[in-house]
Design brief:
The complex is a heterotrimer of chains A (311), B (387) and C (343). Chain A is built from twelve helices and no strands. By secondary structure, chain A is an all-alpha fold. Helices cover 75% and strands 1% of the residues of chain C. In chain C, helix 5 packs antiparallel against helix 6, helix 5 crosses helix 10 and helix 5 runs parallel beside helix 14. The chains are: A mainly alpha (311), B alpha/beta (387), C mainly alpha (343).
């Protein structure tokens, strides 16, 4: 990487480092954001330790497919062998929830990673160069915005066939415009600042100006949006898995597991909450996961506001 | 002559996350009827907070901790504004004491026309006058021979409504009627009359084609025009006291001159007392009879405008006068910075920047004393009659 | 430029926008093979046996722009293909399932707006007090709640356990009566039809079945709307014209409702378009869980069964509704904010 060799890098990044330190300080002082960070870390640990916490059986090919203890339809309550009980078809709920955490992070990181990268790429080019390129890209985002999200996802899923990958691809395709517009707006604002003029004046190539000067200042609003997005992407994927358009039956996905509970929600005539564990437990996982990211995203947004005003 | 407004020992503090900002610490000011008092000082010295305190509009996290503000109302009664309840205050605001804000368009709501906003003030405070005129108008229309029976019915209803309104707007029956779709058309008459008055005010502001301007939105008007509208709104109900918080600071120089002329004319015409807040000494020289100099939340010096320029006493006043750029002279500024009001300097708040500071200045706060007639100063350099 | 000019201009823009929508849908259709696409043109499954003639008739092997004309022609004549998942033409399916969805929407939308705006307002006006904290907690919980999970929990508690609010649209007795000759179905929206027929017990029965789905649909959206209203209200309350309004002598209530609220509504109205999109997702899930025969449930079943004409028909319909909603929102926006009309 060409800029690592640059000794003045540290000096140049100093203002960025200062801003980041300010952001961290404000995060630490807000109790709700601490709760968010704690929740996210908790899930991160679970995801990383999944093979240890819920080891797949011997010779099991795909760890993301939940092992079944028999084939009977009726779910069984929590027991020492199955800490969270089993769902319809005897899928181990504990296993599903643990590996489901991995699925959630995998899905979220991939989708957001791709949408952010595409968004930054298109947004910075669009904002920096303007003109025809800008027009074309903005018309493209307009076209995508003209459709309600779920419609496009459904059509794409039908074209590609229902699977987790189809849903992720669909979400990437409809998700990048948000980031593109965000970055474009920031680039338009920043490129008028003096230090950009200065960089151009000393002969930096466009690429350098964008990457080293404009982008480090443009990413702040991104933090808030991406955090909130992490939560809503996981929610959407879970919803599609629930409907049967995402992860296949038996896959370790929280939404899919709740789909398995649909026939058991009203329980038995004697005890309506007989099979509570089939939907309450995976649901709590989804809820707290999304809550954590939501609190973090909120905290970023609250911090960003006075930061914008300080400028 | 009794004073129109008398601020005694005003203390205002802001409770922020970073600490308690002691914005105003013991301010004493008075205004006589008919005069223009200038309040001059740097940005952040507390001028605006003082003006907001007069109307008891200090926004949270600010709180008026102590002090009294005596005001002589239109009916002659003398009240302490800080002790009034909200309802009485609402009668005074806009009606007896009005305010003009710094940024020309900021005081105007972007979603309503200028005319509507001026009319709002008129409807609020000149209701009786409007109702009387409307009742006469209704009687006229009732006497006309060719009125259809339906119209007659509606006119009777309107007469009842406005008679009730003459006594009190907040009666339950009127409030209910105002919510019913077809019946509340009776309010059209009120709005029309109020708007006519608003147009008249705009004409007084020397605006050409006031009808057209009244129907425009704030974003369609220039800065100077907006400020005239704001002044019209402030003077619509003939207040005895006008607080002008830097009304011309954000305007072009030429427009500034026009607005200043306008204010002077209006003062003559309506005999308004003005508290003129600014940081521009030139404007002070032009507009004011007396001047009060403020620094970091305290008043340093008060004097007639001529005396202040001829014989400034407080070191801060002197420094301010020296800073006025003059051709041929080198640029001068006051060394140091405006103090942080969370931890203000002990004793005299100016002492860290004062070229004549003595030891006592850092320990004891100077009290306001009268050095010569009508010339007050708060500085340890001077001795005089305590005021 | 006045409001009327703006409205006319936007209405005129509606036609090319609709065409743009059809163009994109058609573009997506091209991803399917000619045989699959043939099913978009038939009104009767028996026609599928002579696929060759269909491909011939609608030029499915010709370049896209020719196909587009034939396809658009069919669409404008109401032929959207055959939906194999429900065994009826797509156009008919839409008419069949629309009333149930509409019934959900007409009860949800007013609740969402009234409650959302009210909560946002009181949260902002009483900032940092207990009310504010409670409302904000509700907002973040509502945002994090998966719609399908809340639907399931509501069903488990209020139907499984307490048995007061059942799923689906009507109880068995009511649906028998509604389908009998003595009941005239004017709109096929049960609550309205019940009132028009004068059968109050059916009205209440339908209402009882609506409680849970409407509640489920509104919770998440109210949470989102409320946050936006709160922040825009806080912004408006800090503006100088609010202090100036107080300085004029207006009561606090008038200042909030006449001056601050109107300005605060602007970002909220802008959000309305996104809210409709969110509602669509919520509708799909709610109808599926509560087993309501609406458009959403039809579309999901169609997608699972790879019933392409149905999914595409749903896409077309939903997109058009979305475009019209955005138009209404834009007009509302221009009505509230005169600065927009200049553009």
């Amino acid at each position: 990487m060409f800029w690592v060799r640059d000794k003045s890098l540290k000096r140049e990044l100093e203002p960025t480092i200062r801003e980041l330190k300010f952001v961290l300080k404000r995060i630490r002082s807000s109790p709700l954001s601490i709760v968010g960070i704690v929740l996210i870390s908790f899930f991160l640990v679970i995801a990383i330790l999944a093979p240890v916490l819920a080891p797949p059986p011997e010779g099991w090919r795909d760890p993301y497919m939940i092992p079944r203890d028999g084939f009977s339809v009726t779910p069984r309550p929590p027991s020492p062998k199955h800490p969270f009980g089993t769902a319809e078809g005897q899928y181990d709920i504990y296993y599903g929830c643990i590996w489901g955490t991995r699925t959630a992070f995998r899905v979220g990181v991939i989708v957001i990673g791709c949408t952010v990268l595409i968004g930054i790429f298109i947004g910075s080019i669009s904002g920096y160069y303007g003109g025809k390129i800008d027009e074309i890209f903005m018309r493209l985002t307009d076209v995508i915005y003209a459709f309600p999200g779920i419609v496009l996802v459904m059509v794409l899923v039908v074209i590609l066939g229902p699977s987790l990958e189809s849903v992720m691809i669909a979400l990437i395709l409809i998700g990048w415009p948000t980031y593109a517009r965000l970055i474009r707006g920031e680039v338009l604002r920043i490129k008028q600042e003096d230090f950009v003029e200065a960089a151009k004046a000393i002969g930096c190539t466009d690429f350098r100006v964008i990457v080293r000067h404009i982008l480090p200042n443009a990413i702040y609003p991104l933090l808030a949006v991406a955090s909130l997005d992490m939560g809503s992407i996981v929610l959407t994927v879970a919803a599609f898995s629930f409907l049967g358009l995402g992860a296949p039956i038996g896959y370790a996905d929280w939404g899919q597991m709740i789909a398995l509970s649909r026939n058991w929600i009203i329980g038995t005539p004697t005890n309506p909450y007989e099979y509570w564990y089939t939907f309450i437990i995976p649901g709590i996982f989804i809820f707290t996961f999304v809550l954590g990211w939501g609190l973090l995203g909120d905290a970023f947004r609250d911090i960003l506001d006075p930061m914008l005003r300080r400028r | 002559m009794e004073e129109l407004l008398n601020i005694k020992n005003l203390v205002v503090r802001f409770y922020t996350y970073e600490g308690v900002v002691k914005a105003i610490e013991g301010v004493n000011l008075f205004l006589r009827k008919g005069e223009t008092l200038g309040l001059v000082g740097e940005t952040g010295c507390g001028k605006s907070v003082t003006s907001l305190s007069i109307l008891a509009l200090v926004p949270p996290p600010g709180r008026i901790e102590d002090g009294e503000i005596f005001f002589k109302r239109k009916d002659g009664k003398r009240v302490n504004l800080l002790e009034l309840n909200e309802e009485d205050l609402m009668h005074i605001r806009g009606n007896e004491i009005s305010m003009v804000f710094q940024e020309p368009g900021a005081a105007l709501n972007p979603l309503y026309t200028v005319g509507e906003q001026i009319a709002e003030a008129i409807i609020l405070h000149r209701r009786e006058e409007l109702c009387r005129r409307i009742l006469e108008e209704i009687d006229e229309e009732m006497r006309k021979a060719d009125t259809s029976p339906i119209k007659m019915l509606f006119l009777r209803f309107e007469k009842w409504a406005y008679t009730k309104m003459l006594k009190n707007t907040r009666t339950l029956s009127l409030r209910i009627v105002s919510k019913i779709p077809l019946l509340n058309l009776y309010l059209r008459r009120l709005k029309k009359h109020a708007k006519n008055e608003a147009v008249k005010m705009l004409k007084d502001m020397r605006i050409a084609d006031p009808e057209r301007i009244a129907n425009m939105y704030p974003h369609e008007l220039s800065g100077g025009m907006k400020q005239r509208a704001v002044i019209a709104m402030a003077l619509a109900c003939n207040p005895v006291l006008l607080i002008a918080d830097e009304p011309t600071t954000n305007l072009d120089v030429t427009v500034q001159a026009q607005i200043l002329n306008l204010i002077r004319e209006l003062k003559e015409k309506f005999d308004t007392t003005i508290l003129y807040i600014t940081h521009d000494l030139g404007v002070i020289a032009e507009m004011c009879d007396r001047v009060a100099v403020m620094y970091a939340g305290v008043i340093c010096e008060i004097a007639d405008v001529n005396r202040i320029f001829e014989k400034p006493l407080h070191p801060y006043t002197k420094a301010l006068l020296e800073c006025i750029p003059r051709p041929g002279k080198k640029f001068k500024s006051i060394k140091g910075e405006v103090p942080n009001l969370i931890n203000p300097p002990p004793g005299c708040r100016f002492h860290p920047r004062c070229p004549r500071a003595m030891e006592i200045c850092s320990k004891v706060e100077p009290k306001m004393v009268e050095v010569e007639k009508n010339h007050f100063v708060a500085c340890h350099l001077y001795r005089g009659e305590p005021s | 430029m006045g409001l009327v000019t703006y409205v006319v201009r936007r209405l005129l823009l509606l036609v090319p926008t609709m065409f743009g929508v059809t163009l994109l849908i058609f573009g997506l259709i091209q991803f399917f093979s000619p045989v699959e696409r043939a099913s978009l043109y038939v009104k009767d499954p028996r026609q599928m046996s002579s696929i060759e003639s269909i491909i011939e008739k609608y030029h499915l092997n010709d370049p896209p722009y020719i196909q587009y004309i034939y396809w658009l022609n069919e669409v404008l004549h109401g032929n959207l293909g055959w939906s194999k998942s429900v065994n009826m033409p797509v156009a008919q399916a839409i008419c069949e399932f629309l009333p149930a969805t509409v019934e959900l929407v007409i009860y949800s939308v007013p609740i969402i707006f009234v409650v959302g705006i009210w909560l946002g307002k009181i949260s902002a006006v009483h900032k940092d007090t207990a009310i504010d904290h409670i409302v904000r907690a509700f907002a973040i919980i509502g945002w994090s709640l998966p719609t399908f999970w809340s639907a399931i929990i509501l069903l488990a508690v209020f139907y499984g356990h307490l048995k007061i609010f059942p799923p689906e649209r009507l109880s068995i007795e009511a649906s028998l009566y509604v389908n009998s000759p003595s009941f005239i179905r004017y709109t096929r929206i049960n609550t309205i039809d019940a009132l028009l027929n004068g059968e109050l017990w059916i009205f209440f029965d339908a209402l009882r079945h609506l409680v849970l789905p409407v509640l489920n649909l509104t919770i998440v959206i109210v949470a989102i709307l409320m946050r936006v209203v709160r922040s825009s209200m806080l912004e408006a309350l800090s503006k100088t014209y609010v202090i100036a309004a107080r300085a004029k002598g207006l009561s606090e209530k008038e200042v909030i409702n006449k001056h601050a609220m109107r300005n605060a509504m602007i970002p909220a109205v802008t959000l309305a378009g996104a809210l409709v999109a969110g509602m669509l997702t919520g509708l799909v899930i709610t109808e599926t869980v509560f087993n309501i025969p609406g458009i959403g449930r039809w579309a999901v079943n169609a997608a699972i069964q790879l019933d392409i004409p149905a999914v595409l028909g749903f896409a077309l319909f939903a997109s058009l509704v979305y475009v019209i909603t955005n138009l209404v929102v834009d007009i509302l926006y221009a009505y509230i904010d005169p600065r927009i009309r200049l553009r």
